[in-house]
């Protein structure tokens, strides 16, 4: 999705308008789920997909009217009827997509720039777009803390957006005070903090980057924590020590902490700090014997059993992993599962 937003920004910066198609609702079996997006350019070219076939053909056809009028519109499809059958799209479900004409003006360039900045920082965001432009309302972004980029958004609308997010898909149409808005949530891959820069961390960083995590590597050894060993990492930090390693970090449910330091004492030191954060995932490498030893010492220091129940240790899926490469697959598999299931309970501040 980040690449699609980058393409929107590039297109708007070049002075070209575009039409953005978004699946805003779906039920049953459909080719794409709510939130899927596709750009339609003036010459009929597309980027992204909302399902192919009949659905995309209709979107491309109707985009021409959007360019001409500047008016957004929604289109419903029943993929169980005869029209779908003749196009080999017998999915059996129903879906609706919205088409927005996005002009290459300063307001839209700023809004999509804000959206891209949020995604590049590893933070989720929500884009709110009025579907009726007669009252001059503009699009705006709501960040992961519930803050908006626009100064003139009504409190009632902002409250409705925040309340809507926990129980909806990645995009939906919201009606507020007689106006309809397309509310699209842009999830992110998540910020993965690898605390420790050994062999397992190197393999985990590479695998995690390939499935969309933003990877931050932290270690107190510059000979291990460096770009040569971690070419796919987004950020590498050489620490003076592991004490205070999360100080100043904005760690929330989109953060994943993987503790793979070089020794038990460092693991315990980092784990004690990790339990004070709001991370959505905390995992520590090691055997059950090592885990139990560390847990006993932490409870002696006042850490509760309830806190320790948050920790995944031994880390990773139980696939009999042995080598660093296999352990990385196990760990990243668990991270993917946590990311998919944890999003269902996430909501704006």
TrEMBL record:
Residue ranges constituting the XdhC- CoxI domain according to the UniProt record: 12-77
Domain XdhC Rossmann: 192-335
Domain of life assignment: Bacteria
InterPro entries assigned: MoCofactor_Util/Proc, XdhC_CoxI, XdhC_Rossmann_dom
Annotated signal peptide: none
PANTHER family: ALDEHYDE OXIDOREDUCTASE MOLYBDENUM COFACTOR ASSEMBLY PROTEIN, XANTHINE DEHYDROGENASE SUBUNIT A-RELATED
Name under which the protein is recorded: Dehydrogenase
């Amino acid at each position: 999705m980040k690449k699609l937003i980058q393409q929107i920004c590039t297109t708007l910066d070049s002075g070209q308008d575009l039409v953005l198609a978004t699946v805003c609702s779906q039920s049953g079996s459909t080719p794409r789920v709510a939130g899927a997006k596709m750009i339609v350019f003036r010459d009929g070219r597309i980027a992204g997909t909302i399902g192919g076939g009949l659905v995309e053909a209709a979107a491309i056809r109707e985009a021409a009217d959007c360019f001409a009028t500047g008016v957004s519109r929604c289109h419903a499809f029943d993929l169980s009827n005869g029209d779908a059958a003749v196009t080999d799209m017998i999915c059996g479900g129903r879906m609706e997509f919205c088409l927005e004409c996005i002009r290459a003006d300063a307001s839209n360039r700023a809004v999509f720039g804000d959206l891209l900045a949020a995604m590049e920082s590893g933070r989720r965001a929500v884009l709110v777009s009025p579907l009726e432009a007669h009252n001059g309302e503009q699009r705006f972004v709501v960040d992961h803390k519930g803050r908006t980029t626009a100064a003139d958004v009504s409190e009632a609308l902002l409250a409705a957006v925040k309340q809507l997010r926990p129980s909806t898909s990645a995009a939906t149409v919201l009606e507020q005070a007689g106006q309809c808005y397309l509310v699209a949530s842009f999830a992110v891959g998540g910020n993965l903090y690898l605390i420790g820069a050994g062999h397992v961390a190197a393999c985990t960083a590479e695998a995690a980057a390939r499935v969309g995590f933003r990877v931050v590597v932290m270690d107190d050894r510059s000979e291990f924590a460096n770009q040569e060993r971690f070419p796919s990492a987004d950020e590498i930090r050489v620490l003076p020590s592991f004490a205070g390693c999360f100080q100043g970090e904005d760690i929330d449910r989109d953060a994943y902490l993987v503790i793979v330091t070089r020794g038990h004492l460092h693991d315990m030191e980092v784990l004690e700090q990790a339990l004070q954060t709001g991370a959505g995932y905390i995992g520590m490498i090691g055997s059950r014997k090592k885990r139990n030893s560390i847990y006993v010492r932490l409870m002696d220091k006042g850490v509760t059993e309830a806190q320790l129940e948050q920790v995944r240790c031994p880390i990773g899926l139980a696939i009999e992993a042995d080598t660093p490469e296999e352990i990385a697959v196990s760990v990243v598999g668990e991270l993917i599962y946590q990311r998919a299931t944890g999003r269902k309970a996430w909501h704006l501040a």
